Structures are given as C-alpha cells and as structure tokens.
Amino acid sequence: xxxxxxxxxxxxxxxxxxxxxxxxxxxxxx
Length: 30
Hints:
Elements: H1 2-9, H2 11-22, H3 25-29
Helix pairs in contact: 1-2
C-alpha cells in the first residue's frame, strides 16, 4: 500500500531501502 505510493515517486530510493530490508532481494529483481 504505502510502498506503492512511495515507489511511484521514489522508485530508486525506495527500492534501495527495500533491498536492504529484504537483504538484497529487491536488488536482484531490479
């Protein structure tokens, strides 16, 4: 929910934060 709203504007920034929180999982997808 919130991730979608923030992702639309700060996709790069949010993706980086998410990748760290997931342990680099998001980084692999991108």
